[in-house]
Amino acid sequence: MKKNFILIIILIIVLFSCNKKKDYSSIEYSLYEYESYISTLISNKDTLEFTSNFALDIDDKFISTLNEMSLIYELTPINIIESIKNRGAVYQRIFSNNDDSLCNYLPKDGGYYDVNVTYRVYKGISVAQIEYPSFNKISENSIEFVAIYLNNKWNLITINFLNI
Predict the structure, then answer these.
(1) Is CB count within 10 Å lower at the N or C end of the chain?
(2) Distance (Å, rounded) from C-alpha 19 to C-alpha 93?
(3) C-beta atoms surrounding 156 within 10 Å
């Protein structure tokens, strides 16, 4: 009887300890799949689906944690979506037919070979920076997409144009 009771206690402890652990390796792997997906949307100029990837309602807890991580938060999702709808500067830089547009340099099936992906976990929040370097002589800036892992999927939170 005592053995069964001790065995049950041990199994319960093991069960609860396994449930608390978050599998960051699968989240990190999904980031590379997400980069390929975003890259495919850009190369195929699918602006509608691209803009649907933005996290529009991030609460104050996440914003203060992002500020502690000192990420560049240049444009809000609303600014980016409006710019793309209005064919503004963000649209021109990413989706246009101009020679210096990112969509002209990404493979149609996604997964750019020279992308730089940085993955961080801070206070339980997973954030990724996906940077496409300067891709031609005309371009002066690299482009960085910042994504956050919310509700079991990656969501874009901003786009940064970085001077090299």
Answers:
(1) N
(2) 44
(3) 21
Tell me what pLDDT residue 20 has. Answer: 47
CA distance 78 to 55: 10
Instruction: Give the predicted TM-score (pTM) of the model.
Output: 0.75
pLDDT per position as a tens digit, 103-136: 888 877 776 677 888 888 888 888 898 888 765 5
Collect all residues with Cβ–Cβ distance below 8 Å to 104 and sequence separation of at least 6.
97, 98
Burial 76-91 (b: 16+ CB within 10 A, else e): ebeebbebbeeeeebb
CB-count burial class (<10 Å; 0-12, 13-18, 19+) for 95: buried
Question: Helices marked H in the chain — which ranges?
Answer: 2-20, 24-43, 47-51, 60-68, 77-85, 89-94
Longest dimension (CA), the chain: 77
- List of the chain residues with pLDDT < 50: 19-21, 164
Other residues' Cβ atoms within 10 Å of the Cβ of residue 98: 12
Fill in the DSSP letter of residue 106: S
Helix (H, G, I), strand (E, B) or coil at 120: strand
Tell me the C-alpha distance between 42 and 123, whole Å: 31
